[in-house]
Amino acid sequence: MAAVTEYVQPIQYDAQLVARIDCLQSFAEVALENGYCRPELTDDNKLLILEGRHPVIETQMPPGEQYVSNDVALDSEGNQIMIITGPNMSGKSALLRQTALIVLMAQMGSYCPAKRATVGIVDKVFTRVGASDNISSGESTFMVEMNETASILNNVSNRSLVLLDEIGRGTSTYDGISIAWAITEYLHNNKKARPKVMFATHYHELIEMEEQFERIHNYHVSVKEIDGRVIFLRKLVPGGSEHSFGIHVARLAGMPPQVLNRASAILERLEAKNARPEGGGKKAKNAKNSSRQDDFAGCQLSFIQLDDPTLLEIKDKILDIDIDTLTPIEALLKLNEIKKIVAKN
What we know:
The chain has helices at residues 2-5, 8-34, 92-107, 141-155, 173-189, 246-252, 257-273, 281-287, 309-319, 328-344; strands at 40-42, 46-52, 70-75, 81-85, 116-120, 125-128, 161-165, 196-200, 216-226, 229-238. The chain is an alpha/beta fold.
């Protein structure tokens, strides 16, 4: 027995060497089979991925179908936060995941699924992706989401990579938008750290942040709509999207026709009620994004707009007032009319 114990350390050392060789050989084999590139690791705080791919999804594609690669460029100076909008099932979450995997693969010594990858050293990868509750602790899906997001905000560093997917969806629309906006604003204005952030969202109101914050930029996953059918192009292009095509996705899922027809009618009514005026504001801003392929006017409701009938009636009353010719007595009468509208409802 004593003779065996003398060789424990050499055997363990040999096992470590064999494990390392096995790991590196696996890296090499996968890289050759799938056309990976050699990443460049740098000391700066930039991330550049050209024609990046998801290493798992691309191996599960149907025969003859190519994975659609995408570029990602992030840094702490000019392009710190990417707001990514686009339809359901278009590939937003896959883009977030493949970015994290490419960074991890590069830093663990593997080649990467991309044409080129330049990775400034990342110290932490934070993700808030997916939805789940914690029944044993009595925490709802939204509470779990907020706990994890709070942990991210309290621990980010200048070299962190933060990937957020649909933050705020577990509560009411207005609360969710407000929380998502505030989180994005905090990550942009944080004086202690400027983490690189990718935020995939269906809250299209967040694309307005590009106009107010210099390091926030809009991107969307493009689609084409032909004869009522949606074709997912899965290509990330600059500019915000204002359409989620949720009803089209419900149709793909096999939802009963009467449900789809009713949903379309309700959506049409809501869009007509909340349609934005043509020209100016965000529409003018988005008009210069000529690469957009899904620029559908007035498709998404804005949380700034009113959808309560009473508020809409009051709004119409106020808009009809000619301030330049209004006398004090007429102003009081108008105010009384508005008061009656509120009291009636």
